[in-house]
């Protein structure tokens, strides 16, 4: 992801990810946030919704390359306790064993 994930872009991102997934189940998902410059609670909602979708099918989600300010938002929302965060995409891939 890149740019801003906020109330202006959340619906677009949600629809795009869901479109990419189609009707198929996603076993694991890695979100590389290296290009994300801003995120608000709407963005958290998008990510949490995709997390629920993946984990309901028995999969895992990992997030990588998070800006410290955005990581703080995840921390304040309590998402660091449920979603795994990794410094690099390679570490995330090793941890979940695959990605979409």
From TrEMBL:
<dbReference type="InterPro" id="IPR002645">
    <property type="entry name" value="STAS_dom"/>
</dbReference>
<dbReference type="Pfam" id="PF01740">
    <property type="entry name" value="STAS"/>
</dbReference>
<dbReference type="InterPro" id="IPR003658">
    <property type="entry name" value="Anti-sigma_ant"/>
</dbReference>
<protein>
    <recommendedName>
        <fullName>Anti-sigma F factor antagonist</fullName>
    </recommendedName>
</protein>
<keyword id="KW-0597">Phosphoprotein</keyword>
<comment type="similarity">
    <text>Belongs to the anti-sigma-factor antagonist family.</text>
</comment>
<dbReference type="InterPro" id="IPR036513">
    <property type="entry name" value="STAS_dom_sf"/>
</dbReference>
<feature type="domain" description="STAS">
    <location>
        <begin position="1"/>
        <end position="96"/>
    </location>
</feature>
<keyword id="KW-0749">Sporulation</keyword>
<dbReference type="InterPro" id="IPR014237">
    <property type="entry name" value="Anti-sigma_F_ant"/>
</dbReference>
<comment type="function">
    <text>In the phosphorylated form it could act as an anti-anti-sigma factor that counteracts SpoIIAB and thus releases sigma f from inhibition.</text>
</comment>
């Amino acid at each position: 992801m890149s740019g801003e994930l906020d109330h202006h872009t959340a619906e677009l991102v949600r629809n795009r990810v869901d479109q990419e997934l189609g009707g198929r189940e996603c076993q694991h998902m890695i979100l590389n946030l290296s290009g994300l410059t801003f995120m608000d609670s709407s963005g958290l909602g998008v990510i949490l919704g995709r997390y629920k979708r993946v984990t309901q099918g028995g999969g895992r989600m990992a997030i990588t390359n998070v800006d410290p300010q955005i990581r703080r938002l995840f921390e304040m929302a309590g998402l660091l306790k449920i979603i795994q965060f990794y410094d690099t995409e390679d570490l995330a891939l090793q941890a979940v064993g695959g990605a979409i």
